[in-house]
Amino acid sequence: MEASFLAAVKVSILAMVVIFTVLIILIFTIKLLVKLIPYVAPPPAPPRHQTVSATSSDQEEHIAAITATLAIHLGKSPSEFRIVNISQN
Amino acid sequence: MEFSFSASATKILTTTGFSHLAIGDALMILVACLLIYLAIWKKFEPLLLLPIGFGCLLANIPMSMMANTDAGGLLNFFYQGVKHEVLPPLIFLGVGALTDFGPLLANPTTLLLGAAAQVGVYITLIGAVLLGFNMQEASAIGIIGGADGPTSIFIASKLAPHLLAPIAVAAYSYMALVPLIQPPIMKLFTTEQERKIKMEQLRPISQTVKILFPVVVTIVCCLMLPGVTPLLGMLMLGNLFRESGVTARLHETAETHLINIVTILLALAVGSSMTAESFLRIETLKIIVLGLLAFSFATAGGLIFGKIMCKATGGKVNPLIGSAGVSAVPMAARVSQKVGSDADSSNFLLMHAMGPNVAGVIGSAVAAGVFISLFGDVPPSEPHAAIADIVGTVEPGIRTAISQVAGIAAGSN
Q1: Which neighbouring-strand residues pair with A87?
Q2: Chain B: closest CA distance from residue A45 (Å)
Q3: Which domain range does residue A10 map to?
Q4: What total number of domains does chain B contain?
Q5: A65 and A24 in one domain?
């Protein structure tokens, strides 16, 4: 096929027009789809963690033990942090 | 049979590869070693350049029967997958299974950036014509700017098979060099203020839309440009495997084992086409230079359109995401993120850049489809490649009769 500068320019312009046309059609199609089928947030999953059903004194002991272990592990004083809740799987 | 030691020794010596090693073969072995070096030690697209380099090495060992043109040779069989356009679409199947079109669906106008980046393809086409290539060859060279290896191989094998090797090597080499090529151009075309623009968080997209998207793209694009159906159809099928949620095994196979196996076959086949006769030519140098131009203009095209979108939206779009429109998933998006975070460390552009990045894949496939529509003239009566050899041996008169009978049979159905 004979190739000339002018032919190449014409092909380029034509091709860019086709590309933009195809992709603009896609844009509108996507927008239509998104409008027709909006995102619905899934219902919140039921909580998987249950609070320990221990007596108050049991929980205090657990907190004390964990606080001490963490304090040793982190190299901090137990007064520098506070455990507010314990849960189990 | 009489045995002569000297005659046998001479015969063995004359049948070694060394005795038939031409300068061209030796140079190509050096090129193969360079590709292997770049792949292993410089990490330039190692998954592709390593098997391409090794395929090149095998193809240039004299008398090894490993070149793509050696009928009956091992790599000749692999090359049939390129010649008959089987392997690139299978790569696209895997790419589709790996690609999340969510960012594109959340901000569909970024498709325009994927379209704008294709300007590099056409500027390169014009450059290639000026350098003396014909229109088919120029199209195959221009598509390097699409920064999509399988698309480049697909178009080269269709429009300019004699240029397949340099086009494939240029495409994959420059894709590996995206982190080096793009940042200077990005900084040249954007201001510091523009690079600091923070974009709004992308909205979530319904899973149903994600499922419908590949079907809609296939219908719209393949009806417009049927020539691109093998590529785009496979890309969208792979994505449908991913999003449908009912084909987990197919999705897993497509995104892992299949794409890996096909990559090995495709890269070896491309490497086997890198013989001295096809590669050591002045055209190769021209293609290497044009490939660099293609990447640079594609990046600039995306950035300029990004700036236009930035102005049009009142500064809501960071122009840096435009450079990701060159495809090269996900490397180009990562470069946008890197340049954006260099300007402002709290700027996260990665997900925003993924939109134009995957749009670039569609854009380059559409550009390929335009080339096939314009220059890939295949008469409707042409037999399928699988039976071409059989039909080709029949006398022309009988072929006409077969066509007429086939036409009557089709009409009666």
Answers
A1: A51
A2: 18
A3: 1-40
A4: 1
A5: no
Same domain assignment for residues A48 and A88: yes
CA distance A11 to A35: 36
**Could you tell me if A51 and A76 lie in one domain?**
yes
**pLDDT above 80 (res A73):** no
Residue contact A19–B370, C-beta within 8 A: yes
pLDDT value of position B411:
46
Within a domain: B253: yes
Q: Is the Cβ pair A37, B206 closer than 8 Å?
A: yes
Q: Looking at the structure, do residues A80 and A50 belong to the same domain, yes or no?
A: yes
Distance of residue A42 Cα from the nearest chain B Cα, in angstroms? 10
> Is the per-residue pLDDT at B387 higher than 50?
no
Q: What is the mean pLDDT of residues B383-389?
A: 48
Domain-embedded: residue B390: no
Q: Which domain holds residue B121?
A: 85-375
Within-domain flag for B62: no
Do A36 and A49 lie in a common domain? no
* Residues from B in contact with A at Cβ < 8 Å: 104-105, 108-109, 111-112, 114-115, 118-119, 121-123, 125-126, 129-130, 133-136, 138, 203-206, 208-209, 212-213, 216-217, 220-221, 224-225, 359, 362-363, 366-367, 370-371, 374-375
Q: How far is B394 from chain A (nearest CA, A)?
A: 29
Q: How many contacts, defined by CB atoms under 8 Å, are there between A and B?
A: 114
d(CA B337, CA B346): 11
pLDDT above 90 covers what percent of chain B?
A: 71
pLDDT greater than 80 at residue A14 = yes
Report the SS3 class of residue A43: coil
Number of separate domains in chain A: 2
Residue B223 lies in a domain: yes
Instruction: State whether B126 and A9 contact (CB < 8 Å).
Output: yes
